[in-house]
Amino acid sequence: MPYTQGFLAAVPVAKKDAFRAHALAAWAVFKDYGCLEVRENWGVDIEEGKVTSFPMAVKLEPGETVVLSWLLWPDRATCDAAWEKMMEDPRMEDMGNMPFDGMRMMYGGFEPLVHETA
């Protein structure tokens, strides 16, 4: 069964190109360990909520936007095995510092519930 990892982060607008480069470098590693797809989505219409919202979730600061990302894996076992191996892969260290505050990033794993396409 396919398995999706979802990520939500606050990224400085001035670091958009650095974020893109970081994401592409990470994708090369993810792909080598069995990841099927990556989606990095740059926030352009992000409303501040009164009770909850994407900006509130990541504690968005001035000059930042929200990035919504996901990785599609063939199954959870492949994902779990990949992360174990990737943590030892020197390419992960070669990427240097993340161009965003990792302390405000959230992530989780998800199994499909509904999947329809046109």
Relevant terms:
4-stranded antiparallel β-sheet, single chain, Alpha-Beta Plaits, alpha+beta, globular, 118 residues
Structure description:
The protein starts with a strand and ends in an 8-residue tail after the last strand. It has helices spanning 16-32, 54-57, 76-86, 90-94, and strands at 3-12, 37-42, 64-73, 106-110. The protein has four helices and four strands; from the N terminus they run βαβαβααβ. The chain has one domain: Alpha-Beta Plaits, CATH 3.30.70.100. The protein has a four-stranded antiparallel β-sheet. It is α+β, with helices and mostly antiparallel strands. Helices cover 31% and strands 26% of the residues. The protein is globular, with a radius of gyration of 15 Å.
Task: Give the secondary structure arrangement, pairings included.
Elements: E1 3-12, H1 16-32, E2 37-42, H2 54-57, E3 64-73, H3 76-86, H4 90-94, E4 106-110
Antiparallel strand pairs: 1-3, 1-4, 2-3
